[in-house]
Amino acid sequence: MGTTLQVALYKELVNDNVEYLSYGKKNFNELVTESKKNRRVRNGFLFKVLLDNQYTHFQKLAEKDSELESFRNHLATALHRLQSSSLTECAEFGQHFLNKYFRKVNVVLNEDKYDMSAEMAKYFETLVKSYRLKLEETSTLNEKLNEHRKMRFKVYM
Asked: Which of 32, 58, 119, 127 has minimal Cβ neighbours within 10 Å of its Cβ?
């Protein structure tokens, strides 16, 4: 794994997002049901499956359910799309989980077609971008606070 891929961080981000989108904490089976009804929950849920090491369980369900099998195929394509992302974190994430779970899957990618996999890849990229933005805002705020503290300290001296 590369230096910028922080699975624990992404796990927290995705879990928080899925909890928000599904209106509270839900167990695996509830999220499976919800993901069939709500595409936003689906996008988060599929990344949650990867990050929570629940892929094997999901794969067994997908073997019996054609809709989940379709989700699984689109997830592989989404990870393939992420590999070519301009965001290093997304590219490493896609590479890591493709190698971990989809090593033997032949991914067919149609760049011209916007499908479920493109939406999934965009979901994760947006999550990473929002995290980066919050990190920048926090850094800027901390810098301003430190500068203010230094100024206060000088005044008291």
From this structure: 119
Cβ atoms of 118 and 43 within 8 Å: the answer is no
* For residue 156, pLDDT beyond 60: no
DSSP-derived letter for residue 3 is: S
Alpha helices of the chain — where are they, by DSSP H?
Answer: 7-21, 28-37, 39-51, 55-64, 66-83, 88-101, 116-156
Q: What are the φ and ψ backbone dihedral angles of 25, each rounded to 5 degrees?
A: -70, 135
Look up the pTM and report it: 0.81
CA distance linking residue 51 with residue 108, whole number of Å: 24
**Contact criterion met (CB below 8 Å) for 32 and 61:** yes
CA angle 69, 31, 64 (to 5 degrees): 30
Query: What is the three-class DSSP state of 53?
Result: coil
Distance between alpha carbon 96 and the CA centroid of its chain, in Å? 13
Q: Kindly report, residue by residue over 2-21, the tens digit of the pLDDT.
A: 445 678 888 989 999 999 99
| Contact of 10 with 97, CB cutoff 8 Å | no
CA 11/CA 117 separation, integer angstroms: 20
What was the pLDDT predicted at 146? 73
